[in-house]
Amino acid sequence: MAQFRSGSLVPLILSTLIAAASAWLGLGANEIYCDRLPSLTICATLSAFAIALCFRQLGRGETKRWLLISAILVAGATLFTDAHFVLKYRGFCAQLQEQIRETHAPAK
Hints:
mainly alpha; 3 helices
């Protein structure tokens, strides 16, 4: 059986937790909640951080390559889906906020 070093599973666990949080935020509701877009942007940023962490550990050769590659794939998929969701609904949410501002503007 393969022996794992202490901390060798950290990038995979980190990227899986970020993907789970992203899925919970993105798929947890039936409607589009514009207040979730910043949270998904943060998840995308954390995914990019996890990818950078994996590439740094790839260069050191401390952990198994297949663990790091799978962590990169999970974090990359999370980054892509979060960015796609935010870019898709950013215009809609901005337009909705503008309409709300116009209805609550004081009459002159």
